[in-house]
Amino acid sequence: MEVEQAIQTIWDFHHMGHEIVASDAILALGSHDTRVAERAADLWQAGMGKWLIFSGGLGRLTEGVWETPEADLFREIALEKGIPDENILAENQSTNSGENFRFTEQLLRKRNLFDSLQSFVVVQKPYMERRAFATFKKHWPENVCRVTSPQLSLEEYCQSSHPEINREQVIHLMVGDLQRLWVYAEQGFQIPTHIPQPIRQAYDVLVAAGYNQYLVNNL
Questions:
Q1: If DSSP codes are grouped into helix, strand and coil, which group holds residue 177?
Q2: What is the pLDDT of residues 94-145, one digit of tens each?
Q3: Range list of H helices, the chain
Q4: Given 116, 151, 186, which residue is the final one in a domain?
Q5: Residues 46 and 143 placed together within one structural domain of the fold
Q6: What pLDDT score does 95 carry?
Q7: By C-alpha distance, which of 14, 3, 2 is closest to 154?
Q8: Integer Cα distance of 177 and 213 in angstroms
Q9: Phi, psi at residue 215, to the nearest 5°?
Q10: CA–CA dist 39, 120 (Å, integer)
Q11: Most buried among 1, 80, 96, 121, by the most CB within 10 A?
Q12: How many domains does the chain contain in total?
């Protein structure tokens, strides 16, 4: 398998292809990519959820770069797009995917909302769809989860105003997130994900090509 084929193979695998339908809430997981907030806001405006929830403090890619927690910045984007403040909830302390769900649950329970929200549309970066789903199902196994992300090809996704979202960086990140699908499952952070042999092969090709910056054992 050639490097370019391996890159596209892993990019495609990270997408779950869920059909998005109206749910109880939309949950956008924080990151350095504000297009996640825009996608979540567009889904709310399309009637895909009553509540728009943002979760994220300052994580690995935003700490020391942003002064405002991810969830707070995402909230501002949603407000600018015309979403009423009373329909928005924000949790701005989490620093990883597990905390996204734990801290969001704490917020929802404090608002007496958690038990009434049974279905979620989770919005994440394109190369984190599967990990978002696996983490969701670890924390909230009885709830319905449909995952989506900004609707962009790899090349479109890399055409971002954020300097850290460039093609080389994105490839490093998506290889690292693929590895986390099995490493974090083994550590009990998320449910297991079946990794087909061609995906493992593509992973090996890209690691051999030097795309190892965000592998767990390299951090």
A1: helix
A2: 988 999 999 999 999 999 999 999 999 999 999 999 999 999 999 999 999 9
A3: 3-14, 35-45, 70-80, 97-110, 129-139, 154-157, 167-186, 197-208
A4: 151
A5: yes
A6: 85
A7: 14
A8: 11
A9: -70, 145
A10: 14
A11: 121
A12: 2
